[in-house]
Amino acid sequence: MPNEQETERPRTRIQQRNRDLILEAALEVFSTHGFRGATLDQIAIEAGLSKPNLLYYFASKEAIHNELLSGLMDTWLDPMRAMDSNGEPIDEILAYVDRKLEMSRMYPRESRLFANEIVQGAPRILDALKGELKQLVDEKVAVIRDWTSQGKIASVHPYHLIFSIWSLTQHYADFDVQVRAVLGEEEPFDAAPVYLREVFLKILTP
Questions:
Q1: In angstroms, rounded to a whole number, what is the distance separating the alpha carbons of residues 103 and 206?
Q2: Which residue among 2, 18, 70, 182 is buried most deeply as judged by most CB within 10 Å?
Q3: Please, what are the domains in the chain?
């Protein structure tokens, strides 16, 4: 947590800049080494700050990690929130696929940070997964079931449809090294959007 001195008055530009440097450095370190493998020394070096300076802003490695995860959750849920129950069903789901894939392209480190947390049993975000995430997924599952009952999309298991979208889009971020090793010089995100749209179009078409 920020110390009392920070919470009692607004941050200066230098303080905000240093916090941003720390969080950016921590994102790089955590996404590369995982929570357990990351150290405050690594984060301080990556940020170009001394360890005591870093500890002025964040009391512990856990505090930095929690700050990153807190901000990430909203970012992670936004693509699903944008799925419009009043839109054309197949178009809405394919647009969700597009948004999730674009997040993997734009935010690979954030994706790996999230994946590392899940693999470790989500000790720091389990409440959010069972609360905010589940509530939103349940809401969209009800929408998908309604579209299915109206014959607007094929009969699919809505939860597993969402899981499939997550796994097929986030794979490109979480397994980036493997994907690029196999593809060689081909850019993964050149063909992935068309391929995934074709896959889900076949699944969803009545």
A1: 28
A2: 18
A3: 4-59 (1.10.10.60), 70-204 (1.10.357.10)
